[in-house]
Specification:
About 45% of the residues lie in helices and about 15% in strands. The relative contact order is 0.07. The chain has 18 helices and twelve strands. The chain is elongated. The two termini are about 60 Å apart.
Length: about 575
């Protein structure tokens, strides 16, 4: 596993150095793995100080939660290893106030022992110290003698306790409100793969392509059950069902929900899961009052997520809503309004895809040819995607297939367009809406320019008029897109095909075959070019030897047209 580090033995020191250097409200205890509030943001002496921490590898926890409204100090142990007793003791002394110190500890044996012994040492020095242990793991429940593991509820405890401390609450008051929250809170996680400790060459477990781990902890260990990968909605259902059963939530219970990335889950995936979690909670009659999604307590780069759900009352919601000035938690969290509008009306820009009048023979013939082109693009999705992965971002096949499917779905409306120009304009509108990236606008522009060229023609355009329209479309693509033949783009196939048709002196099925051959030759020629525009230009010389995917897609379409016309009366087409 590649990592952006200097040396495995230096990751904690280097992390602290980078975090503190970039965060004005943070400082460190000299020579020790402790992050504290800076002198300018230090808590006043009559407020309880909060100290947490544990093994590293869970970033942004816990140093990312040091600041006004949350923690006063975080103690960082080695990766997945509890910090030493002396480091915890130093953090207590460095942050202690006359109101005392509250330690927030996850339920792991090393953390409990080391924080507990440090607390005893501090009490012997006359510092009032108490300790809260977070044990929110729903996967193991109460089956383990060691008790439930401490998981992501720890972050929300930081927030609740931090807000209470800022308000001037005493240690017993803070402990009471946190214990009330923890009594109604549980967490469960799912992993799609393992993580790698810095310097390690193998993970603690491996998974097959379709395997996932249910009910794992946060230290790179395997879960409580091996399962098969299922869609996000099914993952959400399992997580929610387990937590709801574990905490015996009843209809109408007000809750908060935190969807946590384990480190390697993109926000795209996490937000999909987040939406599915909210739907699953709502389906069970639970009212979600606040919710968050993001990397809050991770396991290095592990792909996966955890869900924390906690029952709340008015007082807990107020504490969760108080401002927090930290690096890794939102400054303000607003309560959700169950009645708020989740969408606004779309602008009335497009004509609905509805059936119209009878189809004209000319438009019907155009649509028959178009369907063959669309089928060719859909069939080539995998090949175009594989080719695009070699020189671009791998989305070309998917984008073109999606656009082709949208045009097919609009067949009823397209067949009833009055003439070729308006048919092409309607297809242009669909392509512009459905095809992403650069291809969508360029194909839309090509079709629109062709429609302009054919405007005012009644009945079926002649072969010469189609040729002129394609030449106009090709020129418009070059003008707006900025590409010329030789730049290794779709123009390398489109331009020679248009030129071939324009140079034809006789019209018949063979002219479309010649255009297809010209398009294919132009597309294949891009394999020897160094791209200067388009998706392939970003990899430069590494694209040499690979034909441009956009040009290949153009060639495929001309070949589909040639196959259709080869079986028809060329003059009539």
């Amino acid at each position: 596993m590649k990592k952006i580090i200097n040396a495995p033995a230096a990751v904690i020191e280097d992390y602290i150095t980078g975090l503190v250097a970039a965060t004005p409200h943070l400082a460190r205890v000299q020579g020790l793995p402790i992050v504290v509030r800076s002198a300018a943001s230090k808590k006043q002496d009559d407020r309880v100080a909060l100290v947490s921490g544990g093994g590293s590898g869970h970033e942004p926890a816990h140093a990312g939660y040091v600041g006004r409204g949350m923690l006063d100090a975080a103690v960082l142990g080695p990766v997945f290893t509890s910090p030493s007793v002396d480091a915890v003791y130093a953090a207590i002394v460095a942050s202690a106030t006359t109101a005392g110190v509250l330690l927030i500890v996850k339920n792991y044996t090393g953390d409990r022992l080391n924080f507990g012994l440090a607390a005893e040492m501090a009490r012997a020095d006359g510092i009032p110290v108490e300790m809260i242990v977070v044990a929110d793991d729903a996967a193991l429940g109460d089956s383990s003698r060691a008790g439930r593991r401490g998981l992501t509820a720890t972050v929300l405890v930081h927030k609740i306790a931090g807000a209470a401390a800022e308000r001037g609450w005493s240690i017993p008051q803070i402990v009471a409100v946190v214990e009330r929250f923890l009594a109604g809170t549980a967490t469960m996680g799912v992993a799609l793969g393992p993580c790698y400790l810095p310097g390690a060459t193998t993970p603690n477990f491996t998974l097959g392509d379709t395997e996932i781990e249910w009910g794992l902890g946060i230290h790179g260990e395997a879960g409580s059950e091996l399962g098969t990968l299922v869609p996000s909605a099914d993952i959400a259902e399992r997580l929610v069902e387990t937590i709801v059963a574990d905490r015996a939530f009843t209809l109408g219970t007000e809750v908060v929900a935190l969807v946590n990335s384990l480190g390697g889950t993109p926000d795209l995936d996490l937000r999909i899961l987040h939406g599915d979690v909210l739907a699953a909670l709502s389906a069970r009659g639970l009212r979600v009052r606040m919710t968050w999604a993001g990397p809050f307590l991770t396991s290095l780069e592990m792909p996966g997520a955890s869900l924390t759900v906690g029952a709340v009352d008015a007082e807990l919601l107020e504490l969760l809503a108080d401002d927090a000035f930290v690096a890794a938690f939102p400054r303000t969290t607003a309560s959700l309004d169950a009645d708020r509008e989740l969408a606004v009306p779309a602008p009335d820009l497009f004509v609905a895809d509805t059936d119209g009048g009878a189809s004209s023979p000319a438009v019907a013939a155009i649509h028959r040819v178009a369907l063959q082109v669309l089928d060719a693009l859909i069939a080539a999705e995998g090949d175009l995607t594989d080719l695009d992965r070699q020189v671009g971002d791998g989305d070309l096949g998917t984008n073109l297939a999606r656009g082709a499917a949208a045009v097919v779905a609009a067949s009823a409306r397209l067949r009833t367009q009055p003439d070729a120009a308006r048919y092409l304009t309607a297809v242009s509108d669909i392509v512009r809406r459905e095809v992403g990236g650069t291809s969508g606008p360029l194909y839309s522009l090509l079709l629109l320019a062709m429609a302009e060229s054919l405007s005012g023609i009644d009945g079926a355009p002649s072969p010469a008029e189609w040729s002129a329209a394609l030449v106009a479309g090709s020129a418009r693509v070059r003008l707006v897109g900025g590409a010329a033949p030789g730049d290794s783009t779709m123009v390398d196939a489109l331009h020679p095909a248009a030129e071939s048709l324009a140079a034809a002196t006789a019209f018949g099925p063979e002219r479309s075959a010649d255009a297809a051959l010209a398009a294919r030759a132009g597309a294949e020629s891009t394999a020897v070019l160094t791209p200067s525009l388009g998706r392939s230009s970003y990899v430069g010389e590494r694209a040499v030897g690979i034909p441009d995917p956009g040009a290949i897609a153009v060639a495929l379409q001309f070949e589909a047209i040639a196959r259709v016309l080869a079986g028809a009366d060329g003059a009539s087409q």
